[in-house]
Amino acid sequence: MSSDRLPRILRPHRLSEEVGAVLDRRIRSGAFAPGERLPTEARLSEEFAVSRTVVREAIARLKADGLVESRQGAGAFVARPLGAGVFRMGSGLAEAEGAHEIFELRLIVEVAAAERAALRRTPEQLEAMAAALARMEVALTRGEDGAMADDDFHCAIATASGNPLIGRFVAFVSQEFSASRAPTWSAEGVAGGLAGAAQDEHRAVFEAIAAGDAELARQAAQQHLVSAAGRLGVVVPTLLAADLQHIDKGMA
Prior knowledge:
Elements: H1 15-29, H2 41-48, H3 52-64, E1 68-71, E2 75-78, H4 96-120, H5 123-142, H6 147-160, H7 164-179, H8 182-185, H9 187-191, H10 194-210, H11 214-231, H12 241-251
Antiparallel strand pairs: 1-2
């Protein structure tokens, strides 16, 4: 007696995944800003013509991805920063070796991101960079902490790289990277000219990206990160163009 093979059962595409994918794109594109409250379950249910249960499942997936967080009695909000809360870098700036490793990682990722951003950025992404740059300018003028705007500037560059994995990675670890920026934007850092020097470097990176000059963007980003490390007493050897090309091929 021959046995019939069971037919392949295709996994159905769940509505909650479709809704979650749309919300994911809106969040990552900036349509919903970090810290912004999402529409209510009722409004999303009406917009997507699905049940509240489907919406609830979609939001649960976004929470698991670190894109959304709940606040008791207030609803669901876009996480700030996106995707943070899972990966940790250990000692970080608390130890010299940890600081060196953080800046080396930033060099590898952010220099390549700046180069790609110069070639792939959209007008909207340039506006996001310019807005963060302007917020840092205001903070510098007022003697305030511009670390959050600094984070946003670097995340905007990563997003403009056109590689969603680079954008997501920088957003994912920006909370850890932020620790390497905090001393520059401390009261002592602002008074001592550290923030001013960093802002000059930010402008150079932005202008190169805006001009579409990939090589200049690479150089400006590298100079900024090496200088930022130096301001904290951390020596990070610069990467040669050949090294970066090898790294870029591995990340492409």
